């Protein structure tokens, strides 16, 4: 009897445990469902990974670019590819097309003032700063300035002020440096507009009525083209420059003065016409240069000033090149007007200005 009771008690106890487990499972299922709902509502999936948003901070879904491949009709796809390729090829050709190179003999020049030419340090710095896109192939070196300063040595009697002269060795080094850097070299000199030489040699200067040396509106003195000694001084300089081996010598101010009180000038009695006097000098200058090309600046005076200067286009047609300033002023024509004066003459005409204006130019 005892055994039977014990078995009966054990069986009733087992039934009581099952009765507890079932409600517990139900509760756990409810909790799990709640957790899954919470996770589903607060978990965000991004291209950077999976994260939980802050409580109550519901964000707009992030749009992630996806590389989707959509198959199209083969014929349409090929046509689209061909059209696109044509468009790309056209745009690339427009963007990468190289500019037309200037002619080999074109002058694309930079003008360097006499202060730079007289110093190897300043010269080296100047050519180092030349922009590559200008495609400069020529350096125009000022070696005789309008104030009479020289970039070389001189013992000529017209050069009384030794402070205005330079050093032959420095000029030679500068020319050699320019050539070794691949540049052509043009030596630029002012002719009759020469304040220093005219001040030191008034007998060979442009004189004022009543005596004394005449000065233009800029207080600059001029050598007289009528003076044989003045012309010899200039041709001696040309000979010296030619011996330095430049590619070209450029002469400016082959002219009588035009600015200022020109009515006060006294050229003396029995002189030839101004164009005749300039023609004589041009012939002498070309002879002095020997085999070196000689070019000139045509001052391009307008109708009011041209008779005073004595320049005529036909006097300049035998120069290697003609340089004309690309500017308008009270005394000058425009570049196009000046160029037109030479008509059908077989001469190369090059503008001088502050920027490149054509395939040929001098930037000054």
Task: Summarize this entry quickly.
With 364 residues, this protein is an alpha/beta fold.
Q: Your description of this structure?
A:
This protein is an alpha/beta fold and 364 residues long. The chain is built from eleven helices and twelve strands. It has helices at residues 2-42, 74-96, 114-117, 120-128, 168-180, 195-200, 228-243, 274-289, 306-309, 313-316, 335-340; strands spanning 43-46, 49-52, 108-112, 138-144, 184-190, 207-208, 248-252, 265-266, 293-297, 321-325, 348-353, 361-363. The strands form three sheets. It has an eight-stranded parallel barrel. A hairpin with a 2-residue loop joins β1 (43-46) and β2 (49-52). α4 (120-128) packs parallel to α5 and α7 runs parallel beside α8. The longest helix has 41 residues, at 2-42. The chain is elongated and about 145 Å long. It starts with a helix and ends with a strand. Residues 1-14 and 45-100 have low confidence and may be disordered.
